[in-house]
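Wait, can you check?
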Amino acid sequence: MIDSRTVGITKYQAFCALLAAIGSFNFGWNIGSVNIPGDVLQNCVTGHDYYGPFPSCIGVSSGTVWGIIVGCYALGALMGAVLSNYFIDRKGYKFVLSWFALCNVAGALLLSLTTSVAQFIIGRIFVGIAAGAANNALSTYVSDMTTPRGRNVLGGGVQFACNLGIMLDNAIALGLAPPPRWRILFALTGVFGLINFVLFPFASESPKWLISKGRYEEARESLTKFRKGADIEAEFNDMVQSFKENKERTEDVNVFQVIRGKTPDNLRHQLLCVSALMFFQQLCGINAVIFYSTSIINESTNDDPADIPTLAQILTFVISLVALVFTFFGMVLGAYFGRRTLLMFSHGTMAIFSAIMVAGSVKSITGLVVTMVFLFNAFFNLGVGPIPWATAGEMTPRYAMTAMSGIGTGIGYIFTFVIGVIFPPMQSAWGNYTFFFFMAWNIAAVTFVFLFVPETKDRRIEDTVKLHSCGVHLVLGKKWQVGQAKDEKPADLATVTPNFTSEYI
């Protein structure tokens, strides 16, 4: 029997990751749900009629108010991420990934039966709560149940499931955007929530979470399922030993302790990396494309928004399809190239595409603008999309992983809301030059990754924690490189002790 620490992805791992990813699928579905039918909902382009008690649109005259409607979904996701931390600690990942899915059902009822802006906003917040809880739990759950080799591929599952949701939503919206059919579009998120609620009890709980609660036999059974056909004894003993060592030093810490630095290890560098990568993921400009690609493209195509589906709406669907394909490529590339390489390549190309998009807009070259929007979205999914979600799980000790993940997702959702709100007025004010704003942030991101983000591909989490738990520092030079996990045995932690130099800042 082979050592379980050397196995890749088993069928059962893939099955559990798939069930967990339904929540992220729903996250993508609800991100994209307001894009194609946006003009119908906001501007009543097909007329203002009633179907029984239900209006054909909600009618929003202010771009800022529409931005709040779009962005409040992220506020709900932030609430879900914060609330889920409490329930993960006490009830486990299965509980969160199952029961929070019911918020999608409540949100679907509010959205599909909406008669006012206020009701629509509340519905968006409810589906956001479900999405935030799912994404917060999924990244750590996948990290817990996989080996370093398996994380290379399954770690991208969050972004792949999200983009699959966006793509399918956009495809169906081409036929369901006109009133009153858009109500069906919003009702479907409740169906997916019910599927998640019914199926996820068939998945196993995280073995590391079970160990942390003293449920060793259940943890052994869970790990045996995840590593079917392999000898789990050495890996199981490693998990137990790691938990005991951490427990002797501290209990699990909360968000405020991590932010204030009240942790046994100095996690300032991990906090900086997790926070900055999630910040740059939103400021790169992707949510401007996901939320508003129809209106961005329509600025060049000048379609009649009442003639559904418009060329801009069809191209929006094609963009989401291309993004899904590139997400798969990103998952494959993640098995061959390092996290740093993919992040810098992804941010760098997005900066270039932003500049060319501006040039195409200024010169009124429709084909160039549309092509750049395609490429911008596609190359996001090679690195910037999936990698930040996995960073907390690959750099943080177990006792701080939930809190660190919560901080990262919280920052991501706050700035998703910010972009959702400010983009409409910013586009009105800056016009063709809007994407210069995102170009600058992508350049800043490349610089940050080069200077501060360590390589974590194929590295044991314990080794990465040991090396980088020493305050904020530059990661240039060989002494900051952790050796890859070996097949025959885990790396010796004594070999990864850093030399303290003037590189600390």
Notes: The radius of gyration is 23 Å. The chain has 22 helices and two strands.
